[in-house]
Amino acid sequence: MIFLKNSFPLWQLIGFGATSLGGTLLHFLYEWTGENAFAALISGVNESTWEHMKLLFFPTFIFALIQSRYFKDLGNFWCIKFVGIVTGLILIPVIFYTYNGAFGKSPDWLNISIFFICAAIVYITETRLYNKNFSCKRPTAAFIGICLIGVAFIVFTFHTPQIPLFQDPITRLYGI
Are 83 and 125 a contacting pair, CB within 8 Å? Predict the structure, then answer.
């Protein structure tokens, strides 16, 4: 694993693969576990845009935790990850609602593509920030911010705001 220590771009490529695979598995985990409440913490519980954002967040964050062990000397690591994760999370609803607003209901293949495109953008954004030696004054605040996003995903799965972002377009229900 020493060859990985100094290869941020290679780590990012692995991260994209891990996030893509992890997000795909998390899409089905809740159903596969018989709607287990513990699985609901990190997996999608319905087809809402919010739950699809969760599919991007948790694999990306878990991968970042693993990756951070190898880049602990990189003072801006968590700031880079914060910007990448937030970028991906913002783009999922922006792309989805823009397309649907312009063209009507989007086909399933496009919805699936949005997830993979946003995952790629997360890792491309992070790699560009890394290559530009992105300045970071508060890496601890960035890490706390990422953790708070994770808490929001968990809380809003069980206590869901009644707004369209959280509504399952198939069942018209919110959360679990």
Answer: yes
Nearest to 24, CA basis, from 119, 122, 158, 146 = 119
Residues 45 and 157: beta-carbon distance below 8 Å: yes
Q: Is the dihedral of CA 32, 35, 36, 37 positive or negative?
A: positive
Bridge partners, 167 (sequence order): 174
Give the span between the Cα atoms of 81 and 29, in whole angstroms: 25
Nearest Cα neighbor of 55 from 23, 14, 15, 85 is: 23
Q: Mutual orientation of helices 8-32 and 49-68 as an angle, nearest 10°?
A: 130
Q: Which of 122, 78, 118, 72 is nearest to 96 (CA)?
A: 118
Q: Can you name the residues that pair with 174 across neighbouring β-strands?
A: 167
Q: What is the pLDDT of residues 23-41, one digit of tens each?
A: 999 999 999 999 999 999 9
pTM: 0.91
pLDDT single digits (tens) 95-145? 998 987 788 777 788 888 999 999 999 999 999 998 887 888 898 999 999
Query: How many other C-beta atoms can be found within 10 angstroms of the C-beta atom of residue 85?
Result: 23
CA dist., res. 71 & res. 4, Å (int): 10
